[in-house]
Input
Amino acid sequence: MEIKNKYPLYLAPMEDVTDPAFRLLCKRFGADRVYTEFINCDALVRDVPRTTQKLTISDEERPVAIQIYGREPEPMADAARIAEQAHPDFIDINFGCPVKKVAGKGAGAGLLNDVPKMLAITRAVVNAVSLPVTVKTRLGWDADHKIIVDLAEALQDCGIQGLTIHGRTRAQMYKGDADWTLIGEVKNNPRMHIPIVGNGDITTPERAKECFDRYGVDAIMIGRATFGQPWIFEDIKYYLEHGEHHPARTAQWQIEILKEHVEKSIEWLRDERKGIIHSRRQLAAAPVFKGIANSREIRIQMLRTENKNELFSLMNTMIDKAL
Output
């Protein structure tokens, strides 16, 4: 799987975040590859409407990967075949989700405790589809079992064509600092020939450049740092190209982009209330609002309203306060 750009930046797959509306927004601002929300293989095979809806992709967001997760080889292979019919560019396997409802049931990062089954699932998916298959996983289950160097080789032997490594163990969840040293060790292993993508704590252009330069990864994946600022891809690319920060964006410009995302979320979910609730994570995390003085009460109101006109009126008040 060839990577053409010198500094590729990918949008991480995130549940209830990377729907088509957000993926297209990140694509506009320079994301080189985007991923769907992770998809439960059993629900996909059962044709659950909320799950099959996640297969919706468009040509405007390519290259795009559909990510699936599960705990048994056969259902995962079946789900991969179904996902292939949506015509993504890649099928990605989630072996990294640490949350209890996934990992605790033996899927996602839970498979770091059962490597033979992880490899059986990987082989089953690779053999089931004609598309390139990639994997996203973590360093290991906990600090005493950081198995990623050997695991990466074994996954490569299964036929995957790319590997993304989150620099934390399952036990860490999202706490503590991401450790990129083992990501670099995998990348610099002479036996590895597939692209290695690093993930974890990329929150600034400086950190992105450091990780490219120090660890030699083929691409970087960005997750939570995109919340409320999908233009982070453009910021990082500008820094990598020019060695300086992107010119400052006005609060009004940033808030107008966030409004657009709310509109697109409502359109995607075909429901004003659901679209607004779906957007709250982005609004709560948006740095632009945190930087406006004496705005705490307005922010609280923004995160409580379920009416678009009221929400946009509050956002306009934020613009006025920032001027």
Summary: The mean pLDDT is 96. Residues 16 and 37 are 7 Å apart (CA to CA). Residues 9-242 form a domain with the TIM Barrel fold (CATH 3.20.20.70). The radius of gyration is 20 Å.
